[in-house]
Request: fold
Amino acid sequence: MTRLCVAAGGLNLAQGFPDFEATDELKQAAIDAVNRGLNQYSITHGEPALRQAIAAKALRYNGMPVDPDTDVTVTCGATEAMVATLTALMNPGDEVVVFEPFHEHYGPDSILSGATPPYVTLHAPDWRIDPGELRAAFGPSTKAIIINTPNNPTGKVFTRDELSLIAELCQQWDTYAVTDEIYEHILYDGARHVSLATLPGMADRTITVNSISKTYSVTGWRVGWTIAAPAITRQIRKVHDFLTVGAPTPLQHATAAALAFADDYYDKLMAFYQDARDRTFAMLQGIGLDCSNPAGAYYILADASRLMRSFGVHDDVALSRELLRGWAWRPCPARRSLLATRAGR
Ligand SMILES: Cc1ncc(COP(=O)(O)O)c(C=O)c1O
Reply:
C-alpha cells in the first residue's frame, strides 16, 4: 500500500510514522555523538549511558525500579525487542496469547519463535475484553501473552482492572507477559498509561518493550529496548547478540539525551496529537467512515463497509486501490478534506 500510495502521490494513512521532524535538540545530540567519535560497536546490550537513562526514565514515568546493568537490553527498535524476547522464551509447542486485532509483527514473531498464537478478540466499538474468552485462552501450553497498550490499531488503552485480570491469569498459569508500550506518551482525553510490570507479582515475569520511534518521532533511528528481570534479560541478550549485535552507537547516545527531556516535551507531544486526533476523527466521519475514537496511540480504526458498498468492492485491499485511483484521477471530496485538515495542522 505504501508503494502504491507513493506512485499515486497520495497521503499515506496506512503506516505509522510521524510526518514531521524530530526536535533540533535531538538531531544535534546525534550529530554531536558522531563528531565525538562514538562510531564503533557498542557493548552489545547497550551503551551504559543509555541503559542508565532508560532506568531513570522508567522509574520517573512508569514507577518501575530498574537496574541498568542487569535488567535492560538495548535493541534495534521495538521490532527486534519483540522478536528477540519471543525467540529467547518460546519453544516449539508453546502458546502465546495475542489480542486481535494486533500489530502486524506479533503473529509472525510468535510463529518464528516456534510458538502458536491463540487469538483473543478485542470487541468493538470500545475494544472490550471478554474475561471468559481471555480465561479460556490460557492453559497448560500457555507460555506468554502479548499486550500492547496504548494499542495499535484500535487505540485502546488497557485499564488497571483489565491489566489486573491479565496479571491474575499470568500468575495462575505461570506465564510471561510481553508488553509493548511504544505509545505510552500518546494518550487522549486524560487517559492514563499503566505499565503491567508495576502490578503486584508482575515485575519478575513481565518483559516491557519500548523504543524511541514514536515518542521522539525518529522511526528510522532503530533504537529500542527491553526491561526484564535478570534471568530473562540474560536469555534475551544471548539472542540479541546474534540477531543484530547492537543498535547504532551514536544514536544510542542521542537517545540518552532524549530520555532526559523535561516533562513539557511530553505535554507538547500529547497536545499536538490530541489536536490531530480530533481533526482526523471528525474528517473521517465526515467522509462516511464509522470510526471509534482512540484513547491512545495514533491510529483510528474505521469501518469502511459503507464506502465499500458505494465503490462496489468486497474487501479492504480492493477498497484501498479504489481510494488511490480516486485520489489520483478524480476530483475527490475526501482528498479536499484531507488536504484542508493537513493545512490546518
Ligand atoms: C505497537 C507497535 N510496536 C512496535 C512497532 C515498531 O517499533 P520500532 O520502530 O521501534 O521497531 C510499531 C510500529 O508501528 C508499533 O505500532
